[in-house]
Amino acid sequence: xxxxxxxxxxxxxxxxxxxxxxxxxxxxxxxxxxxxxxxxxxxxxxxxxxxxxxxxxxxxxxxxxxxxxxxxxxxxxxxxxxxxxxxxxxxxxxxxxxxxxxxxxxxxxxxxxxxxxxxxxxxxxxxxxxxxxxxxxxxxxxxxxxxxxxxxxxxxxxxxxxxxxxxxxxxxxxxxxxxxxxxxxxxxxxxxxxxxxxxxxxxxxxxxxxxxxxxxxxxxxxxxxxxxxxxxxxxxxxx
Length: 239
Fold this sequence. Notes:
The chain is mostly helical. The protein folds into two domains: 6-33 and 177-233, no CATH class; 60-172, no CATH class. 81% of the residues lie in helices and 0% in strands. It has nine helices and no strands. The chain has helices at 11-28, 36-57, 60-88, 94-109, 117-131, 134-142, 146-172, 178-202, 206-238. The longest helix is centred in the C-terminal third of the chain and has 33 residues, at 206-238. The protein is elongated and about 75 Å long. The chain starts with 10 loop residues before the first helix and ends with a helix. The mean pLDDT is 91.
């Protein structure tokens, strides 16, 4: 069966996918196909996820994190676009230096700014670490891009500080965060998919085959939409 690439999905994407996934399973349940064994645990986690997600949408940190991420994204794009411009500049050493630096961006993720918060943080941290090596720092100095890197680092630090404030506030709360519940949700979805595969392998039925086909279509549509949204975001920010 097809598996969703959860790292490419937003919290809302995960919510929508799970909601529809559960609906397909519930609609497929019959006298000859009892899916209660896998529906019940997933439904329980999903209900908790839904409540916490609604609560976090109202959280003061939701808007603050979005704003900090916007600043971080713009700083990243500013550095990246500047290096692209340098790669075309008719100045001694600029093209070679810029091309080498841009190869790092491409290797670590050209559109990392369109990823989820933590995935972006991880990739941006790796990018900053590589750009700060002596060799790459010299190349940045060659194209006078050091200040652009420092601006991106400042924006990245500000976002991480805000994110840590959010985590601290959540730790003091007696409810579980949507991020933590999302992991449980993903794990249960994987278990449901695996259960369906095993059942169809050893106890085939037309009903289950139809459900598997519907779930595969849901997964494909979900990923197509998520990637299209990511592409539109990247295109809008690059204009």
